[in-house]
Amino acid sequence: MENENLNYKFEKLKTYLKSLNSVVVAFSSGVDSTFLLKTAKDVLKDNVIALSAKSCSFPKRELSEAIEFCKSENIKHIIVESEELDIEGFRKNPPDRCYLCKKELFEKMLKTAKEYGIEHVVEGSNIDDEGDYRPGLIAIKELGIKSPLRYSGLNKKEIRQLSKKLGLKTYDKQSFACLSSRFPYGEEISEKKLKMVDMAEQLLIDLDFHQLRVRIHNDNIARIEVLEDEFDKILKNRKIISEKFREYGFKYISMDIEGYRTGAMNEVLNV
Q1: Fewer CB within a 10 Å sphere, N or C end of the chain?
Q2: How many helices (H) and strands (E) does the chain have?
Q3: 126 to each of 57, 73, 83, 107, 196, how far by Cα in Å?
Q4: Beta partners for 269?
Q5: Which residues have CB under 8 Å from 228's CB, separation 6+?
Q6: Is 72 helix (H, G, I), strand (E, B) or coil?
Q7: Any residues with CB less than 8 A from the CB of 168 and at least 6 apart, and which?
């Protein structure tokens, strides 16, 4: 029954994409957008363009993976400059920060779609995203951006299952979000601090941690979130973690005993 339901959702997704005729896919090289792009390419062939944003809140490794994937799948790939720090009010990190960013980015994507004669812009949020505070979804709705994975009722677990069936390397890739989401609301976002977070998370990835976040507090405090079964690995590697984090600019390094969880910075909001 579970497989039948999953197959039904997958067919619903493909039918929906086919009805769109041509799409620009917001492509971050994450689990969801990679699956969406691959499926769109399979269904719509050359009527698909991938668009990725280049900014200081988007790690270079993710952009490199996006470029590599599009080359391997023979997908036209456009990279746009989208510097969030230049958006009015963004640096102050208000609760609607994600709205400001998504609105600016998807307006650029709509312009690109028009230039290339593409009918729709699509993005990769799934139904799990509806259970958290995500003001970016408001911008998506306002601008008429399509969300095929949500339309098809797919959640993250199902997307991983289908990704594995399609042979996508991203089926077990860690979940990722914009580096700006590592800051408490109201704490100023800067290029320097984004770089600190990026280097810190890259170190943990290099140390083979699977799912992680490095949250930054008061400019120089790192709060590490990893899966509970990897707590011991933090302690085993604490010397190199402490040494490198201090090199990056952190003065204090802590581990969150609640472990990794999405939307941790939203826990202070009354939404």
Answers
A1: N
A2: 10, 7
A3: 22, 23, 25, 21, 29
A4: none
A5: 259
A6: helix
A7: 34, 35, 38
Please give the Cα distance from 134 to 25 (Å, whole number). 19
| Radius of gyration for the alpha carbons in the chain, expressed in angstroms and rounded | 19
Residues in the chain: 271
C-alpha span between 143 and 136 (Å, rounded): 11
Give strand ranges (E) for the chain. 23-26, 48-54, 76-81, 120-122, 212-217, 221-226, 252-255
Q: pLDDT tens, position by position, for the chain (271 residues)?
A: 678 899 999 999 999 999 999 999 999 999 999 999 999 999 999 999 999 999 989 999 999 999 999 999 999 999 998 888 999 999 999 999 999 999 999 999 999 999 999 999 999 999 998 876 788 899 999 999 999 999 999 999 999 999 999 999 999 999 888 999 999 999 999 999 999 999 999 999 999 999 999 999 999 999 999 999 999 999 999 999 999 999 999 999 999 999 998 776 777 665 5
- Could you identify the residue written with the tokens 């929906």? 16
Is 221 in a helix, a strand, or coil? strand
Could you tell me the pTM of the whole model?
0.92
Could you tell me the CA-to-CA distances from 79 to 9, 54, 243, 247 in Å, in that order?
30, 7, 35, 31
Q: Residue 103 to residues 38, 84, 106, 124, 166: CA-CA distances in angstroms? A: 25, 11, 5, 15, 32
Strand 212-217, strand 221-226: pairing: antiparallel
Torsion angle, alpha carbons of 73, 12, 15, 63, to 10 = -30
